[in-house]
Amino acid sequence: MQEILSFLEKQSEYHTPEEIKRGLDVLGIRFPEHKVILVTGTNGKGSTCITLQTLLISAGKNVGFFSSPHIERINERVKFNGEDISDEDFCRIFRIIHEKVSDFHFSFFEYLMLIACYYFYFEKQIDFVIFEIGLGGTLDATNAIDHDISVITRLGIEHEDVLGKGLISIAENKFGIIRKNNAVFHTKFPKEISDIYFKCLSEKNARFFEAPRLNYFVQKNKYPEYFVEINNQNYKLNLLGERAVENTSLAVEIFKYFIPNYEKYLFALQNVIWSCRMEKIQYKNRDIFLSGDHNPQGIQSLSEILSHFEFENIYFVVATCFDKDSDQMIEQLRSVRNSHIYLTETPIKTLALEDYSEFVKSNVEFSSKDPIKTLNQAVKNADDNDLILITGSLYLTGQIKQSL
């Protein structure tokens, strides 16, 4: 396994969806389009996908799910009915694929997607397969896969160096996944992109389904619990936050498109587990929360969740990647009442401690390049009524979870 991972990590030549499609043709992979669900967006892709997967499995469907990034093990990116692909299957399928398409020089992400495609197409009897976009939409490798269902979660500013400056450019890129006659499920679109929406509506004859805004309430126990109201029934969510409610509504909207008697399976919403999304773990007899919010939108959602927690002080162990708006993220964290910022570095794509702005540095109470040392300092300083939360990057939360 390690030898294959070392090879994959060196592959960095990206290809267009048309080139990926040729690779799929060589492998003989062509999914029935009505079984494929392609999901893009800025925030909420993973939560929407994992919720939809959980609901479909509860209804007795066989579901493949390809996602990124992974938290602890690369196998997490390829799931069948909620179970990660085994090391043995991963390695065996890689060798089969590599023998047939090595001349393409596919990238790390592209190889992983092809492994998922081969696994789902040849080795599993799938009813549905969910592909989470890696980056953007138009040029992402997953957009090589023909599909009837396109999903667009909440849109925001991200990866402007790749997707273009401003929300309109980013939306145009993400709308690039929509095929002719697609059913498109989405959260409420910003007004700025109305021209893109109407253009897609006329040129692609797509049918758009906007997820409704669900009523919800928060019940406070030791930690808050969220409940949504659907058709006058209340359902407990395992995921927290107003954004989780929004993503749940989107997943349910897709689910009921496929499953006529969908209501009888909504109990499964309380079983949705998505690693490092306000996940609680134990460390040194303390509750530690892992929340891999990695952009200002994510931190805004985190702040809303924390408004329902009861604590004296909150200690943020935080690091950001070099391509994120660290100033805005730290400013948002500082706005949480009685907050303390403990700064560290991520294992991948990190913004080095010395490269943070003077604004960030002036708001930091402790810093270390070592995440565990930083966490230990927070644990040492926090009282019993204080909250400790790790955020800023999924890479950071994954590294700490694996280390602990």
General description of the model:
The protein has 404 residues and is of the alpha/beta class. It has two domains: 2-271, UDP-N-acetylmuramoyl-L-alanine:D-glutamate ligase, CATH 3.40.1190.10; 277-403, Mur ligase, C-terminal domain (Protein-Tyrosine Phosphatase, Chain A). The chain has helices at 2-9, 17-27, 45-58, 87-101, 108-123, 160-163, 166-174, 194-204, 242-258, 296-306, 326-334, 358-362, 371-381, 394-403, and strands at 36-40, 63-66, 78-80, 83-84, 128-132, 149-152, 183-186, 207-210, 215-220, 224-230, 233-237, 277-283, 286-291, 314-318, 339-343, 364-367, 387-391. The strands form three sheets. Strands 4-3-2-5-1-6-7-8 form an eight-stranded mixed β-sheet. Helix 8 (194-204) links the parallel strand 7 (183-186) and strand 8. Helix 10 packs parallel to helix 11 (326-334). It is globular and about 60 Å long. It starts with a helix and ends with a helix.
List keywords for this structure.
2 domains; 404 residues; six-stranded mixed β-sheet; UDP-N-acetylmuramoyl-L-alanine:D-glutamate ligase; alpha/beta; single chain; 17 strands; Protein-Tyrosine Phosphatase, Chain A
Determine the N-to-C terminus distance.
23 Å
Largest sheet: 8 strands, mixed
| General form | globular
- What is the CATH superfamily of the largest domain? Mur-like, catalytic domain
Detail the poorly predicted runs.
none
What class, by secondary structure content?
alpha/beta
Report the C-alpha radius of gyration, rounded: 21 Å
How many extended strands?
17
What is the strand arrangement across the widest sheet? 4-3-2-5-1-6-7-8
Per CATH, the architecture of the largest domain is 3-Layer(aba) Sandwich
Question: Which CATH C-level class of the largest domain is it?
Answer: Alpha Beta
Relative helix content: 25-40%
CATH overall fold name of the largest domain? UDP-N-acetylmuramoyl-L-alanine:D-glutamate ligase
- The overall number of domains is 2
Instruction: Please state roughly what percent of the residues sit in beta strands, choosing from under 5%, 5-15%, 15-25%, 25-35%, 35-45% or over 45%.
Output: 15-25%
Oligomer: single chain
